[in-house]
Amino acid sequence: MFRRTCVYINVRRAYKQAYRFVSNQLYVRKTSLMSTFIHLKSDKVRWYTGAVSESRTSTIRPNKSQYSLIEGVEDQHRYRPGGYLSLKIGDDLDKGRYRLVDKLGYGGYSTIWLARDLQRAKYVAVKVITANSSTRTPETSLAYSLRNSAPVPGSEILPPLFNDFWVTGPNGKHRCIVTPPARMSLFDAREASTIGLFRPKVARSIIAQLIRGVAFLQSRYYIHLGNILVQFPTTSELYERFGEPQSEAVVHLDGKPLSNSVPARVFIPGWFGVRSDDIVPGEDKIILSDFGESFNPHKTVSSPRRLFLSSSHPRPDSLTIRSPLPRIFGHLPVLSGRFLANGLCLRLFFATPDRVTAEQVETLGVLPPEWWEKWSRRLEWFNEDGTLNLEKTSRAPMACEPRAEVGLEPVTEKERRDFKAMLLSMLAFRPNERATAQHVLHSTWMKDWGQPAVEESWNTLNPELERE
Fold first, then answer.
1. Which CATH architecture has domain 6-332+398-467?
2. Which one, out of 59, 202, 260, 335, has a CA that is 20 to 30 A from the CA of 26?
3. Is a pLDDT exceeding 60 seen at residue 7?
4. pLDDT at 437
């Protein structure tokens, strides 16, 4: 049975990007920010590139490469004291309770494994944290705290914490966190699809679940948008359906034998997902993961106040959730710095604060007067009255209805207006005018479109998900 690897995903992704660029397809999508399906790369790819805690940044990688390069796996140099725990398929953890059957992903401070809970006869995800991060992660305490809260709307988006335990290895003591496995990230589901879109009913349900979950988290004073995952259905024929795990030998460049800190082989994360356009209502239940990366949004999100205000201490606002929503409903984020200058597309990789501000102004209107005057580069894109100077800058074209082009249900004009109004309410320039997650929860789009989609999805929930 064919198993898609990270190497295959990366190559396929590059070909798709190149093809869409040369064929001038209007719905090119980015591949570097969004995450959402399985625990694949679950703490590696983030909604916000700045969301990773600086305290977790690795300092244990040597300056000179010691091992042969293996694509699609964790950094082999981090298998050293303070780093990863050396593991392989078939290993048993927690006194033989959890048997590793496959690898789900990896990140800068953990590897994530699909394991069989031999006591409960079910699949689980075991996240094994690096030794130097194990004592600092707030993930378990946050999860226990949130789970001990009384059930309220939105709390269902939080994955239950089944267990946590410690393992001692040659690289130190490692904390292990056990949760339900998830099938894939939204990012990977979109990447697996040729069109990179969700069915409208599925997109509505996912967005509504996300809004409900973030509103719940903010009501408990936690801000978290690390990963959004689609849950993993149970199966007794895992390898038959998805193929055997694939691994590569770790080779020391100077021919020396490997130390006991380094595994003899590293495993490539498997793919257990489906294409985004193949997900149907009942299979779209999402969960948030990686509470070890919970963060304060004002430290990581480049909202306008960071550029123009000397100091500000607003409450956490919905600006932190506006970014993923357009990418679930369509192809591109609302604000990405994606302008055309002299005919060349300036991708997010090259987006400067000024380019992002320019897109904010084009989308939302002129900045408040006191901010507008402080923006020294405004005339590079706009006239003094705030109108776009088309001689200098133009915007990348975007297809309004790529769904219609491929035969998917189109989005009605009324829903488009309601969705736009909901987004704009989150994007007000002044923080005190910006909608909170609670306000978004009660928006017209949520009442007329989002919540009904969630209820329909729950009414048709896949029995395999219910059993899990």
1. Orthogonal Bundle (1.10)
2. 202
3. no
4. 84
